[in-house]
Amino acid sequence: MPPPDNPGNVLSSWIALEVLSPQTFTDPRDLVSGSYSSIVPIGVTPLPWEGEEGPVKPNFRAYYQVILDTIYFDKAIHSLLEIYADKRPERPGVKGEAIMATVIVDDKGRPCREPAGNISSFGWGLKPALDRDLKRLSEWSAAEKKWSEELHKLLYVKDKAGEVLPLTAEKLVAARQFLHEALAIPASFVKHKSFAIRTYQPVRSGAPEPLLLNSFFLGDLQTAIRLFKQQSANNNLQRYLGVLPPPFRTPLLKDSVALEQLIAPERIPPARWPGPGRHSLVLLQQAAVNAALGEVKKGDIIAVNGPPGTGKTTLLRDMMAGLITARAEAMCTFKDPATAFKESGEKILINSATLRLHKLDARLKGFEMLIASSNNKAVENVSAELPGLQAIAADAEELRYFTALSDELLGKESWGLVAAVLGNAQNRNKFREKFWWDREVGMSTYLAEAAGTEQFVNNGVDPNERHQPRIIATAHAPAGEVAARANWKAARADFEEKLNESRERLAALERIRQKVLGLSALVKKAARAKAALQEAKRQMKEAAGGWNALNTAFQQAEEAVLQARIAVAQHESLRPGFWARLFNTSSVRRWKSEREVKLLQLQLAEKKQAAAANSFHHLQRLIMEYDINHNKLEKRSKHAAANLKQAEREIEKLRTTSGMQLIDDHFFKLPHGEQHLSSPWCDPETQRLRDNVFIAAMKVHKAFIDAAAKPLKHNLGALMHFFSNGNMTDIKKAALLADLWSSLFLIVPGISTTFASVERMFRDLPLDSLGWLLIDEAGQALPQAAVGALMRTRHAVVVGDPMQIPPVVTLPEALTQGICRSLKTDPNRFNAPVASAQTLADAATCYYAEFEGRSGTRIAGMPLLVHRRCNDPMFSISNAIAYENLMVTAKRPGNSPIRDCLGASAWIQVTGTASDKWCLEEGYAVLELLGRLKQSAIPPELYIVTPFKIVADSLRTLIWDAGILNGWVDDPGKWPQERIGTVHTVQGREAEAVILVLGATMEDQDGARQWAGDPPNLLNVAVTRAKEVLYVIGNRNRWKTAGVFHDLATRVK
């Protein structure tokens, strides 16, 4: 891994980039939210707060948020483009106005916040950027403090009695003049436009939140810099920025040993989500769940690379099931759930009621699931899919959890309150009204009933006509605390029984796995025994051959001794007589000489005989030993072979009869597709046990909530007050915010938000307050967008795909890279669009994948490779251009009325002329296809997409003007906005068909075509929106040489 950049420099670079990324509006009405706000003009006398106040709803008060001039955003950006080149043929559109500053006043015109004014970072940063003083952009925090204080002195004036004076027209003019001079914005960029937003707030809530003028992320980025300076940044953030390296790095597609260990039964969670059809997760989905729930330590990041249609939501569901079950297990450690809440002594007085704030036991913290994305649609989709009735098996009828409330929040039939959309103030208010205050389905009503206060709703005018609230009837609220504790005891016992059953089954599967792993050892043992037996046989054969030779040699040696002895005896018989020996005659001397020779020959023969005897007897002993050893080895070999055969029979029986996918040496020799379509270890019986654990875990949550209704009602009431009031100014009360949020997560396990709302929604929430951050569509997210969420969470699972649409960047590339370099930050690692939340997570994850592509090696997070959305040719195109043909299709054939009408996927050749990139003849081709569908009364369940904004705008106009949608779709005005757009607008969506309109048909537009075709991201997203059929409209001859469009031209005829 490359050495880490200085985190302070990286964060400073991101601050500088965000300084130039303000909030904009095109119409003042865009700034108004809710029915209690309206636009009022400024610049005519009297000022709104100086005239007669109209009727005001009781207990409400008027406030005015005054806008002090605005900046033409498009003019400012174009001026930057003149200095900093942008080579992109297709730039993100810029329009509208950026507010220069605001001040909030009450119904008397008195500033009611300190500091009184809020200043735009863009207004301040524009001059340094135009002056090429890019490093100074990182100094926004100090500049904001300085100029806000100056503006405050001008606006916040008190009389001699200490009363704040109301603003006058003269003061507003002076404030605008001060801003123009202080910020030194070119006069041509300033739109002299002052107006106010009038808001009626409940008296108890105080002044409204200031309009957000600046980037959503500036505050958290400044906090993160301070944390690093204090050396107190949490592990999540340190991993993300590369300060802490991952504990290990394992290339999962290349390391079968690591993969086998990761999907072992001992690592499979005891519960799973009973999805539609109760299908099992496939190999790498299960590996990702196991890694996230079993491998992740505090501060570790797991990145998941999820190409289109590979089951990212399915993965998320099983992760949620695992975490909900883990919290249910923690809940079961309490005999009385109410004891999990301890009074803190802090109170909130609301009218005449008192809310007592409780601390939540640490055992129940750390399970909170914050689902975040930069993509609003992704957030809405996840929060709509998880509670939806279609998200669970049709026969999972026991799985119901506060359905009356969930139905209301979702706007359709659901199975339970498992997730909800929060985020911006409008969403939070909508949630609060339904979740808490709704008399029919609200949780305030339910908890009051569960705590022992009977609840009714009046039917009409007659107070005697009343009925039980729907949530109490459908959720079977207990009749008081005694009943709640009895329900808790039963739910707890049922859960523990089912949990034990599941764990015992997984333990049995682990024993099977150990037997499977042992099979390899048995194979090796049998092979060693067989080899040893063969060696023994060889030795015996060799010894047998040696025995014959030695036996012959021994007999020959014995014969030689015998002959030598005979020769000596015969020679002794020829010994000369006494006198000859006395006189040592010549005959005696000759006899003696011959005798010595005979004796020497006998001695030599005896030595040879002794040596032959030794060798022969030694060999005899060896043969006896070999024989004994051979018999032992033969028995050992037969035993090893028998054990191996028995184990093979048992494992083969499991393989063929149990429905279980064993993971063994044989498995990793299977074809790539067969491996990845498999579901490891868990047979249907085991999966049903795991389903039952999750169902029981949800019942435990329901029973726990019933038994702890009273303290929960206080904590949630306080949090809802925080939602409406916007802040918790008391330090001691603010310290309990984490407990209040965790109380909400006890009831709603998953809460989703865009990154843009994290800072405001979780203000004052300490580091690591929440358990889990689950990022969706991370490839689309700016790297700096995730900082605030990472600071507030302990674990992070980041899901996305760098091969889809990258983050959208408005500023020119030369400017963003210049900012990074001026602050000593590597733009290739930390600057969008090259960098995203996904690429930083991919570098921080423990498990990763390598894709060997046309332009080198690409590193991604844990890969999901089984695709279930698209038919061919869409699947094959995506697989070839973006995933090196490693994806595996599991798409089931689907019906397609559009294909039946228009035919198979096709390229419709059009060779018209173009105005800019718009080709009218291509538009007519689209109308022709739509006309055929309308004539056949087939609903247009399709998207019309294009690489270029001008083509999308022109298509909308053409189709509007043609009137073809009239009498065909429910809302002809809305359909073009939702169904026609650039490819960037449709990521995360899918339809039966896609019409891809290419544009850029002229010969001299090769640069635009190459931009669209290199890299593959844009085409990859375009084709994978279509589930069944794809129609391409454009000039094939011009486009077939534009990068990956060559693959499109090859596969679509």
UniProtKB/TrEMBL annotation:
Keyword Hydrolase carried by entry: yes
SUPFAM superfamilies: P-loop containing nucleoside triphosphate hydrolases
The keyword Calcium is assigned to this record: no
Protein keywords: ATP-binding, Coiled coil, Helicase, Hydrolase, Nucleotide-binding
Ranges that cross the membrane: none
Residue ranges of coiled coil: 485-546, 630-657
Residues of the DNA2/NAM7 helicase-like C-terminal domain: 916-1036
MF (Gene Ontology): 5'-3' DNA helicase activity; ATP binding; hydrolase activity
Domain DNA2/NAM7 helicase helicase: 753-809
Cross-referenced PANTHER family: DNA-BINDING PROTEIN SMUBP-2, DNA2/NAM7 HELICASE FAMILY MEMBER
Family designation: Belongs to the DNA2/NAM7 helicase family.
Name of the molecule in the record: Part of AAA domain-containing protein
Species name: Chitinophaga arvensicola
